[in-house]
Amino acid sequence: MVTILNIKQQMMDMIKKEAFKELLQFQNSTKPCVSIYIPTHRSGVQVNEKQDVIVFKNALQAAQADLQQQGILPTDIEEILKPAKNLIGDDSFWNNQLEGLAVFLSEGFDEVVKLPFTVAETLYINSTFYVAPLMPSMLKNKEFYLLALSKHDAKFFQGSEFGLQLLEVEGLPNGMDDVVQFEEKEGRHLVRKGGGSGVDTTGFHGHESPSDDKTHITTYFQEVDRTLMAEVLHDKTAPLLLAGVEYLIPIYKSVSKYKPIVDEGIYGNQEKETTLALFEKAKKLMTPYFEQQSKAALKNYYSQIATAATSSMPDKVIPATYYAQVSDLFITKDQHLWGKFNKEDNQLEIHEKKQPGDECLLNQAAVQTIKNGGSVYVLEKDQMPKESMIAAFFRF
Prior knowledge:
The protein is built from ten helices and 19 strands. The longest helix is centred in the last third of the chain and has 29 residues. Helix 3 packs antiparallel against helix 4 and helix 6 packs across helix 7. The chain is of the alpha+beta class.
């Protein structure tokens, strides 16, 4: 059994995949969908002086003015915005923020998401939600595990590009003293403290040789590995990062049956480190792994850049996303491309400025790509192919 511990630093479950899918699918043709993004702060003067609350109130006022201008009835505006307005006076909510906040509102629908990465201040009102800023958190192959080891404890974490969650794994040893061996005529047996064996066990104390100590550590790590394989890792392929005093890590590697262990480790005693501090160390080592997928997708794009398999022309890429023809889509971060696309008659309109009834075509292209099983990469402008706003690698 595995339990996710409820810690303030937890960031992995900022938005469940099911909730993300619901945002993708949600559409309201009669009442508007309101998407609000603001940057937030964990601590500091911005929290003490409630600056994040002020920014959020301003966003709600702007949303109300926009809805009024669209001719939405005051009673409908109040109903749509009420869940967000209820957050304004919630001090506990604002005192426990991450780097960003996303709020999605429509008739009978509200979703609030704390984001472990900063976002541009954005107000988007349309018949669908603006989800492009969430795309980086939905990429596959960004999961990893971290095992912090010492003689006195073993802590197991699930990690991503955005944070760590401490997992409580049933049966995981509470240090070396929790795993002892004793002799019987039948041979050596391993006993766990509190395991109901009825045996009065003792820990590894007294005068022992270095070889004895290594033997005990090996036995302890074998039990850690056996438990993790049984409870969590038996069907996983994500990399496992080890943290601990340098001489312990090779011992664990030598006994572990889990193969995707990261070559480098976080060295030193980590027993007193906070989850957040441990994550910062892990992120430095795991960043190349996080970037593998987007780099591979871009490499694939550039290898076919002179062929019909790629394009950076919006009038070609956007329709293709609706017809399930895009394998990898690249869009520019924090940018809008306004216009309309009619799938039935394959008519695309692109406007320099937003016009009534327009939607962000970059957002819609991303939504359609995800719905059709493709991958979306949100990149800085200088990372985009030909510094275009949108580009794609096609399935055919």
